[in-house]
Design brief:
367 residues, alpha/beta, 13 helices
Length: 367
């Protein structure tokens, strides 16, 4: 299939494709003296990608090509950034031909085990590397070596807004892309970006992982549980997807930990907790509150409360806060254990200030 990115499309191209296109155009200029306004490269599936080249310039013995990342209709933090690719052509003493790929400024360095790239190496994933090599080898003659250095001027700044620091990728972004094509499925792309957290945790020897919705859970897991970064897995709203991945990877113990607003949905069997997908927090709270409160007016007030925090206040005033949330936490464990058999679950539910509302076990903090 041919993807022509010279015209606007719902599809986009990855940082890996940018690097491959830039490297190809730079090497082409070194070999044939022609500046290409676009290149046609091939991905690992055999698809043709036609990618525009923003700029080509000679810098000493090297040629630098600049490619602008286009994410199409996908929501991508890297959309519109510049990717620089410097290529230098050298001679070998043998008849072989070779491509060497390095990371420059703005490309992160891997500092933890568990990722596709080895610790200490630049965060250039294997598939983009293979795509770059395959395309450049077509231009090389026997006895030639192409040295490629990929840089992202804004990489270090943008990486702070991604999961890279948590995954142990420091100093910049990653060069990614299995097919080289970005399809407008931002949820799927985001979900897949969460999975390496599990790989890092397992590679660093953690047997019991702490699954949290996001920042609040992470902050208080560190404070209340003395948890390390690598054992905390932020799942966002994608509980079902991440629990499936955890089971696939052999995780045996998971502590579900986080704010009531997200965690109580799990008690209702809801495993994508985004409010646009399902929001029955009040209904779940009402059902469990009714086990301890006989007053119908109070139950109705809970049902029509504006926020979970408002319900917490009501339950506290009635003296049943812990009882209600202990029941919900235990039901979360029952639900998850039924669906993801073979994993031992625990659950701790907190409020916005980190106060423990309920837990599935009588042990201290569920440990």
């Amino acid at each position: 299939m041919i993807y022509d990115f010279r015209k606007k499309s719902k599809f986009g191209y990855t940082t890996g494709s940018c690097a491959a296109a830039g490297a190809y155009s730079a090497l082409y200029y070194l070999k044939f003296g022609e500046k290409l306004s676009y290149v046609e490269i091939e991905n690992l599936k055999g698809d043709k990608l036609i990618i525009p080249i923003e700029k080509i310039e000679k810098i000493g013995n090297k040629v630098r090509a600049v490619v602008i990342k286009d994410a199409g209709e996908d929501i991508d933090i890297t959309n519109g950034i510049e990717i620089f690719v410097d290529v230098e052509l050298k001679k070998l003493d043998t008849s072989e031909k070779k491509v060497i790929i390095k990371g420059g400024k703005g490309v992160g360095i891997v500092t933890k085990d568990g990722l596709q790239v080895k610790k200490g190496e630049p965060a250039i994933n294997p598939k983009p590397k293979e795509m770059i090599k395959n395309n450049l080898l077509k231009l090389l003659d026997d006895g030639e070596i192409a040295e490629v250095v990929i840089s992202i001027p804004k990489g270090e700044e943008l990486a702070k807004k991604t999961l890279n620091p948590k995954l142990g990728i420091v100093g910049g972004l990653s060069i990614l892309g299995t097919t080289g094509i970005v399809r407008p499925m931002s949820n799927e792309a985001y979900m897949n970006s969460l999975v390496p957290q599990i790989d890092v945790a397992l590679a660093n020897g953690y047997k019991k992982l702490i699954f949290v919705p996001g920042n609040i859970g992470t902050r208080y897991a560190k404070k209340l549980l003395n948890a390390e970064d690598d054992e905390i897995i932020e799942v966002s709203n994608f509980w079902g997807f991440m629990l499936d991945k955890a089971k696939e990877k052999g995780v045996k113990e998971i502590l579900v930990f986080g704010h009531a607003g997200k965690i109580i949905k799990l008690a209702g069997g809801i495993y994508n907790t985004h409010s646009k997908i399902a929001d029955c927090r009040n209904e779940i709270l009402t059902a469990y509150s009714a086990l301890f409160i006989d007053d119908k007016d109070i139950i109705k007030k809970i049902l029509y409360s504006n926020t979970t925090e408002e319900v917490i206040k009501i339950l506290k005033e009635k003296g049943v806060l812990e009882e209600v949330f202990n029941c919900i936490a235990k039901r979360v464990v029952e639900r998850l254990s039924e669906r993801w058999q073979g994993i031992k679950f625990e659950c701790i539910i907190i409020d916005m200030k980190g106060n423990i509302l309920g837990k599935s076990t009588n042990d201290k903090l569920g440990n």
